[in-house]
Specification:
Strand order of the largest sheet: 5-6-7-3-8-9
CATH architecture of the largest domain: 3-Layer(aba) Sandwich
Number of helices: 6
Order of helices and strands: EEEHEEHHHEHEHEE
Radius of gyration: 17 Å
CATH class of the largest domain: Alpha Beta
Strand content: 25-35%
Number of domains: 2
Number of strands: 9
CATH topology of the largest domain: Rossmann fold
Helix content: 25-40%
Distance between the termini: 20 Å
Length: about 210
């Protein structure tokens, strides 16, 4: 059984962002929430993950699962190097943490940047470091909120392939306003409008 969203409602400043939304999500595969900025995609993602509390309705099927979240912002610890940021999410001995962090940073093209602090990295580098951290942490459900928006074509392609391999057999919820990303990664694309958020259509991509 997957994640079930039942009659979910959420307001900000008295304005409804979610208004009685119901949706069933599968146990595995990539589901994309596609739509324009401001329609409520990120709010939906955060409510599913439990980072925002619903005003009404329920989300079931998440409790007890290990969740990995890649935010629009990199949210790196500014006092830690790239390697230390990734190592911080790993539950093993210090030497092994450092080695695994280095491997994941190498996988996203940052093998030469392990000792750099966030302030010393470009926006794209920071986003790749944050992606390495989410990939290293792993999980049962991956929440990806505009994860590729700061990346150039080649780095985006490589990172998309990394996530595809890492999340095989898992459920991935992807938020994007880039249809190319949606079609390349997702098995199901929900086309959204709003606010309040509405499902304007759904597309099966056969991935």
């Amino acid at each position: 059984m997957g994640i079930s969203i039942n009659n979910a409602s959420k307001k900000f400043g008295g304005k409804p962002v979610l208004d009685g939304l119901s949706l069933e999500l599968p146990q595995n595969g990539t589901v994309c929430f596609f739509g324009p900025s401001g329609c409520g995609k990120t709010t939906l993602l955060r409510c599913i993950a439990g980072l925002e509390k619903l005003d009404a309705g329920t989300v079931s099927g998440v409790k007890g699962q290990k969740l990995s979240f890649l935010f629009q912002e990199d949210r790196l610890l500014p006092w830690c190097t790239a390697q230390e940021n990734v190592a911080a999410v790993l539950a093993c001995g210090k030497k092994e943490r450092c080695a695994k962090a280095g491997q994941w940073l190498g996988a996203v093209g940052l093998a030469d940047s392990l000792a750099l602090y966030p302030r010393q990295m470009s926006g794209g580098m920071r986003q790749r470091a944050a992606a390495a951290r989410a990939l290293a942490y792993g999980g049962d459900v991956f929440f990806l909120d505009e994860p590729f928006q700061k990346l150039d074509g080649e780095n985006k392609r490589k990172l998309m392939e990394l996530f595809r391999r890492r999340t095989e057999g898992k459920l991935t919820l992807l938020v994007t306003h880039d249809m190319d990303e949606a079609l390349r990664l997702a098995g199901t694309v929900y086309v959204l409008s709003g606010p309040p958020l509405r499902i304007a259509g759904a597309k099966k991509c056969g991935i």
